[in-house]
Amino acid sequence: MASGVAAAFLGLLPHILHHAGPLAGAALFAGVGGSLLFGAIGFIAAIPFLVRMKRHCGSWHRPLATLVLFAAVFLLSTFVVGPALTGDDSDGAKPSATPAERPAAPSAHEQHH
Question: Domain total for the chain?
Answer without folding.
Answer: 1
